[in-house]
Design goal:
alpha+beta, six-stranded antiparallel β-sheet, elongated, Thioestr_dom
Length: 144
């Protein structure tokens, strides 16, 4: 398992081109209990009615909480995967920068629970909020 901060950043950057990278999310801070970042959202993220698709918010919730939860268990040679994603879409949004804050609510031996809030940078209004329950799993032997 990746075990140093710069290795984790490298690993995340190498994942560009994966499904999660379609959100344009940038990690600004990663700790074992908190993750912060931002994304530029626009027409590429719209549903047919010209607003950001709820699946984009759900993807951000899943991605951000998974990275934080995996960081929390990396020293045990583990990583975390989402089991249940409950994301509520609170306001419509068409384009601009969103700020994302994720915090661990519970971190147990086998499971974790994270809260993620997505806010419009320009207005400070919450656009979406999600909770992700995660399972801690042993890292594959062939993993970096």
């Amino acid at each position: 398992m990746v075990d140093r901060l710069h290795d984790i950043w490298d690993h995340i950057n190498e994942a560009q081109g994966t499904f999660g990278s379609t959100t344009n999310f940038v990690f600004d801070d990663i700790t074992a209990t908190h993750v912060a970042g931002h994304a530029e959202l626009g027409p590429d993220h719209h549903q047919p009615w010209g607003i950001v698709h709820g699946g984009v918010y759900a993807t951000i919730v899943e991605s951000v909480a998974s990275v934080g939860a995996s960081y929390a268990v990396k020293d045990q040679n583990m990583f975390a995967v989402g089991l249940h994603n409950g994301t509520d879409f609170l306001r419509q949004f068409s384009s601009g920068t969103v700020l994302v804050e994720a915090n661990a609510l519970y971190q147990g031996r086998t499971q974790q629970l994270w809260d993620v809030v997505i806010t419009a940078e320009a207005t400070g209004k919450v656009l979406a909020r999600g909770q992700l329950r995660l399972q801690n799993l042993p890292a594959p032997e062939n993993h970096g």
